[in-house]
């Protein structure tokens, strides 16, 4: 079992969650579409070679984003990460997977 944590702007919050739910994440027993989310502030500075969704190269940017957490079975890891990357608007998706025991 893994815990997936990712950061996403509010404009894409629901569509990204739906994509990873469709890939099998967020299921706990007889419940589906389970997650925890909180709004916060992220920051980044795109390099000259970047193609940012928000901001511009060389300029420090601060944005409101959501941190979203959900669980997934180990065998779904590749499909869920693929769904996350394909549905997310950012060029570089900030996420991490944590192996957990339940």
Automatic annotation (TrEMBL):
Name of the protein in question: Putative GTP cyclohydrolase 1 type 2
Organism: Marinomonas aquimarina
The protein's Enzyme Commission number: 3.5.4.16
Database matches in SUPFAM superfamilies: NIF3 (NGG1p interacting factor 3)-like
Keywords: Hydrolase
Gene3D superfamilies associated with the record: 3.30.70.120
GO MF entry, a single one: GTP cyclohydrolase I activity
InterPro entries for the chain: DUF34/NIF3_sf (IPR036069), N-reg_PII/ATP_PRibTrfase_C (IPR015867)
């Amino acid at each position: 079992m893994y815990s997936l944590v990712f950061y996403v702007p509010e404009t894409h919050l629901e569509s990204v969650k739906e994509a990873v739910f469709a890939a099998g994440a967020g299921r706990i027993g007889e419940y589906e579409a389970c997650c925890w989310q909180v709004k916060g502030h992220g920051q980044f500075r795109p390099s000259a070679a970047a193609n940012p969704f928000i901001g511009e190269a060389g300029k420090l940017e601060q944005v409101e984003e959501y941190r979203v957490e959900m669980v997934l079975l180990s065998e779904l890891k590749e499909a869920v990460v693929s769904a996350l990357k394909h549905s997310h608007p950012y060029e570089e998706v900030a996420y991490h997977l944590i192996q957990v025991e339940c």
